Amino acid sequence: MTHHDKIFAKPQPNIPDFSFNDQVASVFPDMISRSVPGYAAIVDGIGNLCARVAQPGTRIYDLGCSLGAATLSMRRQLDDRGCTLVAVDNSEAMINRAAEHLNAFVSPTPVELVCADIRDIDIEDASMVVLNFTLQFLPPQDRAELMAKIYRGLVPGGVVVVSEKLRFEGDRVHQLLDEMHLDFKRANGYSELEISQKRTALENVMKPDSKLQHYQRFSDAGFSEYSSWFQHLNFASLMAIK
Ligand code: GEK
Predict the structure, then answer these.
(1) pTM of the model
(2) For a pLDDT cut of 90, what percent of the chain falls above it?
(3) Which of 76, 140, 198, 241 is buried most deeply by CB count within 10 Å?
(4) 18 lines ligand 1 (CB under 6 A)
(5) How many A from CA of 54 to the centre of ligand 1?
(6) Mean pLDDT of the chain
(7) From the CA of 28, how far away is ligand 1's center (Å)?
(8) Does a structural domain hold residue 71?
(9) For residue 144, is it within any domain?
């Protein structure tokens, strides 16, 4: 059961930092689809890509899986090629609900649901690793090490997908795309109060990088081929191939 997101609809005297708690988990599909332009297309594209790059008998990771949308999309597109999906999130509220979502469908591909910090898990024998709007929530100083760990855990030909809100190096471009994103949220029924309170809640928690920073991080981790494969306003999805 999923509900309409009204978390920031009423004025809040003190706005605590945004956290992936039970309240957020219960409205998550509505929240993310009304806030992230291109979200559904990206989730679909991840499934399509997975069908092409998943190698028999390997592992496929969904890091920061929330309710498992990317995991489900990949599992739907995987025939029985002996892969194991590993879906990781450190929010217990998300993992509990992800289990319900995943159990609602039958599939030959097993899913290991892990409640853990993605900085602490081992990544091994992976042909695909997905960070669908997760890296932006990691402290900036921890991002390079995670990417290096992903590179080491990928088999040759393995692919990492990184979807993120982007920061732009040019101030005018940044501001224009930011304003157009606010219009996207308004068009999806969010009020000015909801938009500004959510922005305050995210300020200390979500720190977007520029596309250049992402490319530099891929390169530093060892990837020699990478590109953006989707962008809608200031939201993009990138991929890098080992
Ligand atoms: C989707 N991928 O629907 N360790 C584990 N999980 C984390 C960490 C961490 N260090 N930091 C944040 N998370 C999903 C959407 S949401 C994006 C991803 C958003 C988790 C956090 O608990 C949350 O579930 C997820 O990353 C980010 O395809 O809400 O904008």
Answers:
(1) 0.96
(2) 75
(3) 198
(4) no
(5) 22
(6) 93
(7) 11
(8) yes
(9) yes
Tokens of 218: 């891929």
State the residue for tokens 């217990």: 92
Could you list the residue range(s) of the whole structural domain that residue 126 is in? 39-167+206-241
CB atoms near residue 91 (< 10 Å): 20
Q: Tokens standing for 150?
A: 């992903």
In a domain, residue 62? The reply is yes
Q: 58 lies in a domain?
A: yes
State pLDDT tens for residues 187-213: 998 877 777 767 877 788 899 999 999
Cβ-proximal residues to 33 (8 Å cutoff; 6+ apart), any chain? 39, 40
Which domain CATH number covers 231?
Answer: 3.40.50.150
- For the Cβ of 132 lying below 6 angstroms from any atom of ligand 1, the answer is yes
Number of CB atoms found within 10 A of residue 101's CB: 17
Cα(77)–Cα(50) distance, rounded to whole angstroms?
A: 7
Please identify, by atom number, the ligand 1 atom nearest to the C-alpha of residue 62. 2
Q: Is 138 in the pocket of ligand 1 (CB under 6 A)?
A: yes
Pairing of strands 225-232, 235-241: antiparallel
> Three-state SS string across 88-120, please?
EECCHHHHHHHHHHHHCCCCCCCEEEEECCCCC
pLDDT tens for residues 83-105? 999 999 999 999 999 999 999 88
User: What ligand 1 atom has the least distance to the C-alpha of 70?
Assistant: 28
The count of structural domains within the chain is 1
- Measured in Å, residue 117 CA sits from the centre of ligand 1 at 10
CA 99 to the chain's CA centroid: 18
